[in-house]
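Lecture notes, unit on binding sites. The following record was shown on slide 14. It pairs a sequence with pyridoxal-5'-phosphate.
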Amino acid sequence: MTVLVFLDSAFPDGRPADAGVPQLMINDLGVTRGDGIFESLLAVDGVPRKPGAHLDRMASSAQLLDLALPPRDAWERAIATALALHTEASAAGTGSAARAAVKLVVTRGVEGAGTPTAWVQVTAAPDASRQRTEGIKVLLLDRGYDSLAAARAPWLLLGAKTLSYAVNMAALRYVRANGADDAIFTSSDGKVLEGPTSTVVLARERNGVRTLLTPERKSGILAGTTQDALFRAAEAAGWELGYGPLVPEDLFAADGVWLASSIRLLVPVRSIDGRELPFSEALNTELTKLADAAL
Ligand SMILES: Cc1ncc(COP(=O)(O)O)c(C=O)c1O
């Protein structure tokens, strides 16, 4: 079951629409050019998690694309409407509302119209509990850009959450066809970047100091809201924090590596390119609890 609510200035709380029938013009630039941005966030029992961080990131993505965004309060109201409709439909027996995936989408709109097309859609969240406890196998994939490309070539839109995710999906198909579950991109100059839909986090303990690390943002990666929430909670619990740069050897030398994202949360990486990584159930539980509390 999918709930759909368009942002529409004539409807202050959003305009609900039937997700089961065609709703977009075929000359919408989001469809014809992938020209737009999106956000995916989790809602638990009808309450969105860290909506402010997602709306902030959507504003940053919009700025990188020079894209006009509907006002923030219009998003907040449309999200509330969509979640209420989803809870209602679930209570009527057509699905489970407990964990829902909320997608916010905005395109550059119909060609020539000059106004964006924007909507909120809500579906039941996929169950990732097995990956969270058992972990995943990962392959390192070359993204083909060096770690300075984002600053040198802003038109590549590295670091924006654009609708052009065909490359990310192709990476996932590639690793799955080669016996793994997920990917970690590396830059052409050998730095660790991010997963196709996740942020890389690693933990290490040296001389009694426990540190969480993540690749540096200026290397052209998306600013992860889950990683950020985890880091803030971990810092309050006494962890040191580090922000790269990281190379693949850092992953192999860590006490644990995770992929962090809003819907799947924290998934431990059990092997990279067939090389087993250290895994501690206690550490996995500790970081999962920290991330959960932060959210
Ligand atoms: C490329 C990429 N990096 C990182 C993330 C993780 O971001 P967040 O934790 O805000 O979901 C995502 C989320 O989909 C992503 O697509």
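Take-home: The chain has a mean pLDDT of 96.
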